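so my prof wants the structure for this chain in the tokens format not the other one, which i didnt know existed until like an hour ago. anyway here's the sequence
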Amino acid sequence: MKKKTSLKDIAQEAGVSTALVSYVLTNKEEKARVGQEMAKKIRKIASRLNYQPNHIARSLKSGRSDTIGLIVADISNPFFGNIARTIEDEAKRNNYTVIFGSSDENLEKSGDLINVLLNRQVDGLILIPTEGSEQQIKQLQKQPVPFVLIDRYFPQIPVSQIGINNYQASYNAITHLVKTGRQRIGMIAYKTALYHINERKRGYTEALASHSQQPSLMKLARYSHIREETRQAIDQLLQGRKPADAVFFATNSLAIEGLKYINELGVRVPEDLAVVSFDESEAFDLYYSPITFIRQPILEMGNAAVRLLLEHIKDGDKPAENVCIDTALVIRQSSNRQKKK
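here's what i got, hopefully its the right format
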């Protein structure tokens, strides 16, 4: 087996000390007052000898691994995928590498991922917590590793978190539908105890009440049965002498499943049914009636999460911070004003 190149090998070929090589390969040559030509020579030798740094040894020596752990709900969902990419890019700008995984909304898998990342000696964690993970978050508070929650949080647990005003965003979406003449507005949401989804539900019901609308037409679907239960919900909303004339989907995944079925039924959007979704999706652009959606500030959320986590890494005594970023309602064809009949 070929011997792994060491700092000593590079130092001998360059005719310098191993300490000087270490300074150059950790981008600290200016601090050590290493000349540009020598730094260039050392990097060229390291490249030719295929030098690979020993990150474990370096982290043991410095007490830092320059890595951040990230756990999202489902990396295949565009919303979570975009958040992960934003966090990865922002971390790289700050010389950090991101290791991430998906909990798949599974409490046991979430706990396993947290343990794996802690064992990898990450410097901090950014989490999109799954339902029922309050105890995991409380246990993390006892660890020396700082963490930040993003998108979801638990109001009763005082930790740093990045989010939006889910209540107000939903309230604004329903108000928009009311102003376009819709009178029987349904909502399809996940059956969950997660706070952010329940705030979206609250925004929906209180907007209906404040605009003297029909009673709530709330329908719920389980994440594990999204296809069949979204279809059941739509059937229930569209049945009877007075079917719903608008539907508000609590997430983009619910909206995509719902739109597939609405198409199969031959229901016209927006003539028969107005549609608004919380979150966006590229699929919305391909639909024959572009979908109105609530745009979440993914770039701002991801950047803020990295910034806040790095502040906690630098200052272990920094108090918890709650960051709330504004959303925007992007109005498109699917919620056009209803024509008078």
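also thought this was worth mentioning. The mean pLDDT is 89.
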